[in-house]
Amino acid sequence: MLRTVLSNATRSAARPTLLTRQVARPAFQAFARYESSKANEALKAARKAKDKLQRDWQGPVLTYEQVKPKTISPGADAYLIDVREPDEVMQGSIPSSVNLPLSVLGNSLHLTPQAFKAQHGFEKPKKQQEVVFYCRSGMRSASACDIARRNGYENILNYEGSWLDWTSQEGGGKGSTA
Fold first, then answer.
1. Which residues, at least 6 apart from 121, have a Cβ–Cβ distance to it below 8 Å?
2. How far apart are CA 168 and CA 143, in angstroms?
3. Catalytically annotated residues
């Protein structure tokens, strides 16, 4: 519209009434949303629950001293999950850990238990099971905790020091290739 107005303005200097009609802008109304005091309580509760899920979340953090006993005597009711990619895991991994790359974590948590086991080679964690995530330095494991929480997992822990901390505490070696 602007191009039309400018070209018409140069051609028709003798017709100012036509120009004003073309330049006239529509009036815009500002809309405001007001919550009614009698709004549906279920709708308000659903909005609060959605906001709570979308808020960034910081899960409980474990240290080397807390993770070490889990590797010495692993329990069937807990998982230690390495979220690094398979080529990174070839460098070594924490004993008793299983690999579930962050790149497939979200989709894998939606699989049926049978499909999950067929794809990854271990049982799918249950929503109430203790799940400890680790990666190389702690960033991806924090993301994995957030993804698991958004998928309904309740007992999620983050080994924040992750692989770098593990190798420094264990003497700088390559670690286990569990």
1. 98
2. 23
3. 135
